[in-house]
Amino acid sequence: MAWFDAGVNLLDSRFDANDIIARAQQAGVSKLCVITTHPNEWKSAVALHKAFPDTCCYTIGVHPHNAKDVLPEHYEMLREMATQPGCVAIGECGLDFNRNFSAPEIQLTVFEAQLKIASELELPVYLHERDAFEQQLSLLKRYMPSLTGGIAHCFTGTKEQVEAYVALGLYIGVTGWVCDEKRGGDLREAVHSIPLNKLVLETDAPYLFPKSLRPRKRNNEPAYLPHIGQYLSEHLGETTETLRDCSYANTCTLFSLGE
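Structure (tokenized):
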């Protein structure tokens, strides 16, 4: 089996999609989930899927940083585009009270609207959270009974937060943050509490280059996912093949894709 990178910001201006996909495939990463974070990215994600239908699926949503940019007409646009072939989740959505690029009250409104749409369309949610865990958990507890699932994307939190998310039925997305000796301590402890059937590997490229990989590069990319899997497998005492296969199967289940 190959690898599935469950989270790539492939629309980032630093990327040439053709080059990134080619290097990913050379590294054994055969599938990518393209993350969207703003309405101005949605049509580009659809176009990427049409260009690479066997490789790229995508999300449709609004990141909390961009909640301030949402107009009333965007919600109907989101509903329509999320029903297009290749869309597998609503998001990246959630709450980020760390830098508050959008006011918290606006973030809450836009996040809840996306939870409602995900419920209506029977799609999972692709979740972001920073410094807003209790508020996010409270909303998720209300909506998870009507949702078809979700993923705590790019999880960097604690063992207790993992357990709370898993109790809701969420998958946990692990990135190269786990390879960061200085900042990844909480995550390296928390990953022991992630059941293998809830573990999903992702890069969040071009962010979070795995710092244990040499030589170091400016940008992360999907081709480095196998390194993250190998690092995590050694940390957990599992084989790399086990993590690769579990993550691939879990991602397909989360996104309702055939393996």
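The chain has a mean pLDDT of 97. The longest helix spans residues 104-121.
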